[in-house]
Amino acid sequence: MSESLVWLCVKNNNAFLVKRGKKNSRCGAVQFSKESGNLLNVNSFKYSGLANKKTIDIDHSLNLNLKAPKKSNAPAKNVATIPLKKCAKTSTKVVKSQGCNKFYRADLTAAATGRYAKLYRDSQVKKGLVKPARAKFGRNTRA
After folding, report:
1. Neighbouring C-beta atoms of residue 50, cutoff 10 Å
2. pLDDT tens for each residue of 20-61
3. Residue 104: how many CA atoms within 13 Å on its side-chain side?
4. Cα 48 → chain centroid
5. Is 119 in a helix, a strand, or coil?
6. pLDDT of 60-98, one tens digit each?
7. How far apart are CA 122 and CA 112, in angstroms?
8. Consecutive H or E run containing 10
9. Is the separation of the CB atoms in 64 and 99 below 8 Å?
């Protein structure tokens, strides 16, 4: 099936959809998606891991997952995994060269590098190597 047809079937109802909002006329105004292959967790065609044949995903164990479009009928062999265990500078180069080159998905370069930076920082905080980011407080609040 074509990507656009899959998106028309999946965009309003799927198991990964998370709708947020109060019970009023704007219910579900903000929609998120928890599917793999969705870098920003936003329910849109550009970032969808279900509708697109080529997707990029960086999981919490710092692995770069690329979907192979030729193996779409074999889900077990569909995803190629590249570990990103090195320093942040070389891993960012790997993310840009492997997944975000002009032949794969060049439009996801900023989203992929941003997600890697956040997950790398989070892993460093969990290991105790870096202090966590300070919470920002609004106007007239003291802590």
Report:
1. 19
2. 766 665 665 778 999 999 999 999 999 999 999 899 999 999
3. 20
4. 9
5. helix
6. 999 999 988 888 778 888 899 999 987 899 999 999 999
7. 15
8. helix 3-10
9. yes
